[in-house]
Amino acid sequence: MLFGKRRKQPAAGYDKSGKIPVIRSSICTGEQVAGFKDIVSGKFEELMLIRNTQDFQEFLCRYQVEETEIKREW
Fold it and tell me: 9-25 pLDDT, tens per residue?
């Protein structure tokens, strides 16, 4: 659909034993990206751009993450 509403993606859980939720923030621009970081390898998987609180809340709901679980990296 070209100009219709976007369909909501089904909730996708994450491997809580192997990954942690992280928000990376740029010191220079303030841009924030949400994703998951592998505990063992340290590899960061970007999932969505956080532009406002609505985007942040969507990330929390979509991936069933508690706000207290999220780490922030600079």
Answer: 555 666 778 999 999 99
Q: What is the pLDDT of residues 49-59, one digit of tens each?
A: 999 999 999 99
pTM of the model: 0.76
The residues, any chain, with a CB within 8 Å of residue 21's CB and separated by 6 or more, are: 14, 34, 35, 36, 63, 65, 69, 70, 71
Contacts of 38 (CB under 8 A, 6+ apart): 18, 19, 44, 45
Tokens of 67: 């706000």
Helix-strand-coil split of the chain, %, nearest 5: 20, 30, 50
